[in-house]
Input
Amino acid sequence: DTAVSQTPKYLVTQMGNDKSIKCEQNLGHDTMYWYKQDSKKFLKIMFSYNNKELIINETVPNRFSPKSPDKAHLNLHINSLELGDSAVYFCASRSVDSTYNEQFFGPGTRLTVL
Amino acid sequence: GEDVEQSLFLSVREGDSSVINCTYTDSSSTYLYWYKQEPGAGLQLLTYIFSNMDMKQDQRLTVLLNKKDKHLSLRIADTQTGDSAIYFCAESTMTGTALIFGKGTTLSVSS
Output
C-alpha cells in the first residue's frame, strides 16, 4: 500500500556512468516532482511535471532528465555522473485537486558517486 | 526571489516546549507547511496553515503565522525524544508549484 515508491534505495556508481532512479505513485496524482537533498540536508526542487508541462529548475544541469512513461511514473535519468551529484533524491506527487496542495514524498534514493 | 530561512539547530529537554521559527519572502504564498524528516527517512507532512489564518492547533502542535512579518513558527508541546528530527518549513503558491524549503532545523531532545 506504498503511496510513493522509489527504486533503488541506495545507488553507488562510478563517475562518468549513466544511471536512472525510478519513481512510482499509486495515489492517482497528476503532478510529480524530483527534489535533491545535499549533504547539508538542503532540499531543492529539480523538476515538476504533469501531463501538460515540465518545469525545470534553471540550476539543474542538462545531464539530468525526467522521463514519464505514464501518469504514475516519473523516472530520473542522469548522464555522465559527477562527484557533486552525490545526494539523496526524493520523488513527490500531488493532486491538482488537493485541498491544501499537499505533496507526498517517497523514501528517497541515496546516490553516491565515486 | 523566493527564500525561506530557519535557524539550523535547537536543543531542548524532554517535556519542555520547542519553538522552531521560519521566515519567508514570497508574499503570494498561499500555504505554508511544516515537514518532519527522521534520520535516514523521507519527509512527512506534520501540519500546514493557509495564509489567511493566524493560528492552527493540532494536538501537541501549534502553528503561528504572522503574515505582515512573513514569520511562521511551530511549537511542539511536551517535546519527546521521538520528536528528534529535522523540521523543514516550506511554502507554495496557489498554483501548487514546487515547494520551497527552508534549510531545516535539527531538533535534539535530551532526556
User: Anything to note?
Assistant: Chain A has a mean pLDDT of 92. The longest strand of chain A covers residues 43-50. The two ends of chain A are 34 Å apart (CA to CA). Chain A has no helices and eleven strands.
